[in-house]
Amino acid sequence: MEQEQYLEFEKPIAELESKIEGLRRLSSAEDGVNIAEEISRLQKKVEKQAEQLYSKLTPWQKTQVARHPNRPHCLDYINALITDFELLAGDRLFGEDEAIVGGIGRLQGYSVVVIGQEKGHDIETRLKHSFGMAKPEGYRKAIRLMKLADRFGLPIVTFVDTAGAFPGLEGEERGQAEAIASCIDASFAVRVPVVSVVIGEGGSGGAIAIATANRILMLENSIYSVISPEGCAGILWRDGQQAQKAADALHLTAQDLKALNVIDEIVPEADGAAHRAPAQTIAAVGDAVFKHLSELMKMDRDKVKQDRADKFMKMTRLQD
Asked: What residues have CB less than 8 Å from 219, skipping those under 6 apart?
């Protein structure tokens, strides 16, 4: 488990929790000193402070929370929610890309195919998973798993968490754009329910490749956008330091996207932020996914496919 890390705007919480930790050490070191009451008072103050702080985050602050290194990632959700999980590797065309993980398992009684982007938690795993930025073989693996799910009538659950597709030369050499487009096409073609959850960053085509779903959910402090704030700032103002301004303009928060009918549900994060209460947040995501899967599994397979197409066609029309 990584050491607790605080964002700049979380300093008031950091100071209170530092005091609590100091009191706990003092309590352990000195027999007969009962300071539990003071610890309890400070803990309630932390909870109140966190509630107030996370209820009024700016888009840029939400971007920082979505990228927090202690936030639960794809494999955390799989390990907690998916039983009897069998990892499936390789695209059967080029090789294995561990930026995208996928396999078969069971979610609260439903046999499902799971596909997700994994960022990693430390230097070793972040390099192993390429920080969640998939190469073409990763998206072609996702296509293979989608077709497998369709063949056996298994619903698909995807976990989205990427800054975007792999930006290097080798990705372009192996057909990055085609792989993403084909992955989106495969998502529309399957006749099984697809439920997608944006658990951190949903960046550009790298995200939508596995988020072309019947139901799209977002954690309340996740982001989903055509480009990162830094990338947008670099293009519009030629200055990456304008990222905060770009975040305000991109409408990338879950609340913005729910209002625009791009997503279907916002999943609350326990204690205001997923990195503060990962187990409770993961459980909330599991319940939300199960609810939507239960509704979609009652539909005819052709109707499921049409439902997904209608959802995205509706986004292209101007709303009154």
From this structure: 197, 198, 199, 200, 254, 266, 267, 269, 274, 281, 285
Is 107 within 8 Å of 143 (Cβ atoms)?
no
Return the axis-axis angle of helices 229-236 and 243-250, rounded to nearest 10°. Answer: 110
Residue 247: closest CA among 68, 63, 7, 67:
63
Nearest to 164 by CA among 176, 150, 151, 182: 176
Select from 133, 63, 31, 139 the least CA-distant residue to 94: 139
The three-class DSSP label of residue 213 is coil
Cβ-proximal residues to 310 (8 Å cutoff; 6+ apart), any chain: none
pLDDT at 33: 54
Helices 176-189 and 136-152 pack at an angle, to 10 degrees, of 10
Instruction: Round to whole Å and give the CA distance between 36 and 34.
Output: 6
Contact 158, 213 (CB under 8 A): yes
Give the model's pLDDT for residue 51. 76
pLDDT tens digits, residue range 190-210? 999 999 999 999 998 999 999
Task: Determine the topology of domain 63-315 in CATH.
Answer: 2-enoyl-CoA Hydratase; Chain A, domain 1 (3.90.226)
Q: Which of 113, 101, 187 is nearest to 138 (CA)?
A: 101
Tokens coding 274: 């997923």
Report the percent of the chain where pLDDT is more than 70.
Answer: 95
Instruction: Report the first-to-last Cα separation within the chain, whole angstroms.
Output: 49
**Closest to 168 in 3D by CA, of 157, 160, 176:** 176
Is 0.85 surpassed by the pTM of this model? Answer: yes
What is the H or E stretch that residue 84 is in?
A: strand 83-87
* Residue ranges in the chain whose pLDDT is less than 70: 1-4, 27-34, 318-320
Encode pLDDT of 278-306 as tens digits.
Answer: 999 999 999 999 999 999 999 999 999 99
